Amino acid sequence: MTAWETARKLFFIPNPSRLWSLVSCLRLRAISGSNRKVAWFGNALLGTQGGHLTSDATGEQPGRPEIRVLRSNAPFIHITRTQKRPSPYADPARWSRNRFSRPLFTESLPPFLIPPAIFVGLLLSLWTWKCMWIIIMQNKLLYLSWLPPFSRSDKISEYESECRPVLWSEHTIRSLDNTKLALCQGYIPATPGHSSATPGQWWIDTSSITPAITGFESIRRCPHFPDETSYTVAALSYRGYWTSSGRATQSGIEADAQAFLMHVSERFSPCQIVLWGHSLGAAVAASALLERLSQNATHAREEDRAPIRGLIMEAPISNIKDMLISLYPQKWLPYRYLWPFSWNSWCNYTNLERLAALRSQKVDQSRGVPQTADCRVPPILILSPENDEVIPPTVAEQLEHQGKSLGLDVRRQNIRGAMHTEVPTKPEGKKALVEFIIRTTHDPPRG
């Protein structure tokens, strides 16, 4: 018979002995782990009968609940547990372990400082993460071979109708390490009726054929453009650019530039070369000129090489450090301080210093003793866009000042209203380019 049925029968028979039997039954069930509904029903039962029952704690055992029946106006059964939950501070060893297992962050900071601390920690983590990727991926960020989008799939035929009468063609050459390089070449014949002078050769560095073609077309339509001379424009795509293979690196690009100059000297001799570099390409062109003059200083027959008559530096950079500072002018940003971790060392200041040193010095390869000679450093034109959003205008001023202090033929032209890539499209920029080309290719070379 269940406890519920027993209680129902006892509810209608007010016998004290039966009530005491019910209390004993409830006590045994409480000891065995019965739920608290049994104790509640016992309280209700005793209250209904109005009986008064007292008893002392009997059968107390360690770890077992104790039942106490107390005397009151409303009799009830009160169940308590004599075994308490052990405190972690009772055992010193256990207290020590719990103490050091608490998070140090929440233990050492007041609650109102936790949100700002979390924000600062996330900001520092983001800065560290971005700095790491800037260092690792610096070649991808410096040599933007993926810009403009889809530039590697450009075709010359897409611009052929816009470029007439200039004839553009695509060629392939090999770098010094046998890397395949793409070359976009355009030819401008002399106007009929004029006696053609020595042909000129331009070198334009570009990542895509679009800047080379569109930039040169805007210059060709300039009214000051000479008609009596035929010109060949060659736009070199470094490794990793356009359809060239390989990946862009500083050593690889320097090798590409030397291979290109060798190709021009062999195929278009006799000719006069004018180098034209834009932004980072200005440092590439200056480095190529420096390497070419160094080779001429040790070459037995200098007349076998096509002379370089001029160097055009359009929106040039100074060095990697200044370029990072110009891109991140805020002093609180850590990215501008990453220049010591750069493995690219393009520097136009160093190029100008070395050009000035080669101007009056020639190395005798057989003896290794410096001897006086004339290496004929060509004139240099620096084109500075007034509204350049990438390179500060002060860079061109500093390069001009250093070049003149070193005794080089350096001239700077400020192009009003031009942005970083708009120099060839502005009338002032077209005029400066054409006048410089005419002066360097028609005037006799100066030492």
From TrEMBL:
Domain of life of the source: Eukaryota
GO biological process: antibiotic biosynthetic process; monocarboxylic acid biosynthetic process
A single Gene Ontology CC term: membrane
SUPFAM superfamilies to which the protein is assigned, alphabetical: alpha/beta-Hydrolases (SSF53474)
GO MF annotation: an example: palmitoyl-(protein) hydrolase activity
Annotated ranges, domain AB hydrolase-1: 228-400
UniProt cross-references to PANTHER family, sorted A to Z: ALPHA/BETA HYDROLASE DOMAIN-CONTAINING PROTEIN, SUPERFAMILY HYDROLASE, PUTATIVE (AFU_ORTHOLOGUE AFUA_3G01760)-RELATED
Protein name, UniProt field: AB hydrolase-1 domain-containing protein
Source species of the chain: Penicillium chermesinum
